[in-house]
Amino acid sequence: LFHNLQHSQNSPFQFRQTSPVHTTMPGAVEPMEIEAPANAQPNGATPLIGESSEAEASGPQPASEAGAAETPASSETQPRDPVSMVNGSDHSFASTTRRSSALRPLDMLNPKIDLVEGVSSVMDTASKLVTIMIGASVLGYPAMFSKTGLILGSALLIFCCVVSIYMCLLIADAIGTIQERTGTHIKKLDDIAFQCYGSIGQRGTRYLLNSFFVAKTCLYLVLIGQNMNYLVPSLPYRAWVLIITVFNIPVALLRDTSLLDRLSFIGVIASCLYGVCIVWGSIPASDLDRRSFEPNPGFQSFGKMIGVVFSSLTMMIFGFGPTDVMATVRSDMREPDSVKTAVIYSHVATFSVYWLAGMVGSWGFGKYVTGNVGLSMCDNPGCVGQGRCTADGCDAIHTIKKDEAGAKWVPGIILAVAVISNLAVTIPLVLKCLYNSVEACYPIDQPMGRNVNVAMRIGTVLFASVIGLCLPFFLHVMGIISSAMSVPVVFFLPLFLSYKADKLEQMPRSIRRWIIDGFMFVLAVMALCVGLYESLSDLVQAIKERPQAMDIFGHFWD
Known about the structure:
Layout: H1 2-6, E1 14-16, E2 33-35, H2 54-58, H3 122-133, H4 141-148, H5 150-182, H6 189-231, H7 237-252, H8 258-262, H9 265-285, H10 302-319, H11 326-331, H12 339-365, E3 388-390, E4 393-395, H13 410-439, H14 450-470, H15 474-505, H16 511-545
Antiparallel strand pairs: 1-2, 3-4
Helix pairs in contact: 3-12, 4-5, 4-10, 4-12, 5-10, 5-12, 5-15, 6-7, 6-13, 6-14, 6-15, 7-14, 9-12, 9-13, 10-15, 10-16, 15-16
C-alpha cells in the first residue's frame, strides 16, 4: 500500500492508522481514515518522491506552538533527523537512504501520526537495557570498591541504581506527556528536547550527546590498547592504539554498517563473560603474595572522603544511566507504558552484576587492584607494565618488564578477548551515531560537503587516538568522562525536560516532587564539580607516579 501511494502522481489521499494514544475514549481505536495530505497540490496531486513541498521542508513544531496550525510552518529549514542508535538498537530507514527527507515514505504522512508500532515486549526491552548498561565500565568496579570499602561502595551502588531508575522514569513520563499533547512520535532524545525547548534545546542536546560519543571512543581506545598489550606484550600499548586507529579510519568512512549492526549480539555474550571472568579470576587472586585486602579502608580527611564518594558516584552513574536511549527504547515497545517495568527489571539485573564484580573483585585482588581488573590477572610479580606491588606497598614508577611478568591467567585471557571483541564492534556503532547526528545539523538543501564530511570522520578517530596515546589510564579517564559528560546526560537532561513537559501541560507539581527534583539538581551540581576535581586530581597523581606514561616519544615502547 505504501509503495503504491508513494509512486502515485495523482492520488491526493493517504491512509492513516490512528494510534490508541490519540483516541478520545479509553480503549477505543479509531478506524482507518482517508484524508488529504498536508503537502497536497491545488490540482490534487501529491509531490513525487524526490520532491519536497514547503510543508515538508518546514519540519515539526515545538510543543509550545503545536496547536497553532495543523500544518507546521517554520522560518528555518528543519535539519534532518540523526540515526539515534546505540549498540545497534535502532536501525533507522534514514541510515539506508539518500539524504533527502523526501525519500522516506513516512515523511509523506501527517507528522502527528504514529504509524510505527513497537514489537518489543517488557523482557525484550529489559534485556536490551541490560546489554546497553553492562559494558566496559564493569572492569573498574573492583578498584572502586577497593577505594571506597565494601560497605560504602555497596551503599553508593544502591543509591546510584535508584537515582538512575528515577531519571529514566522522568524521561519516560516526559515523552508520554509530549506525545499525548502533540501527537508527535518521539524516537530520539533530541526530539523531545525540540518539543520542549525548540531548536536551541535540540542543538544543545545534540552537542552534549555528540561530545559524550567522542569521550566514549577515547575510553574504548584506551581499553582496547591495554587488553591487546595484555594478550600480546611483544607490542607496547601505544603501538596497539595506533594499529586500532589505522583499522578504524576506513571503517569510519563506511556508509553501510549493516554487518556491524548484525554483530551487536557480541555485546550480549561479552556482558555475560565480564562478570564470570572477574569472579573466576578473583578466586586464585586471594592467594597471591601481593594481595592486601582492607574491607573498609580509612580516609586521610573528611574532604578526601567527600572527593572519593563523589568520584565513585559519578563512575557508578556512568555504569547505569541509559537515559540517552530511553526515547528509542520506549518507541520500540509494544506497550510503551510498560517501559517502567522494563527499567526496574534491567536495573536490578545490572546492579547484581556490578555488585558481585565489585565485592568479589575487591576481596580477591585487594587494594592494589588495577583500574582495569583484567590487568591484575597474572602470577607474581604481576602483568606487563603494571607497578611492582607487595602486601606492604606498590611501586608504580618501576613497572614490570616483559621478561619479568608472570604467566597470564585463563580468565584474564577470556576477559581480554571479550572486551576487545565487544569494543571492536561498539566503536564503529558509536561513531555512526556521532556522524549521523553531525550530518543532521545541516539543512536538507545544503548538506555537509563531501570533503568536510571525510575530514570530520577521520579527525574524530585521530583525536580519540591522541587522547589514548597520551592518557593510558583507564579508570582516571572514565572518572573524568563520568563527571563531565555522564552527569549532564543522566541528571540535567531528565530534570529539565521533565520540568518543561509538565509546564507545557500545566500539570501541578507536589511539594514532595519539588523537594526530590531539587535534591537531585543539587546532587548533580556537586557531583559535576567535586567529582571532576577529584578525578583530575587522581589523574595528576597517576601522572606523577608514572611520568613515562605521558612521554609518547621517549617511552613509546615501554
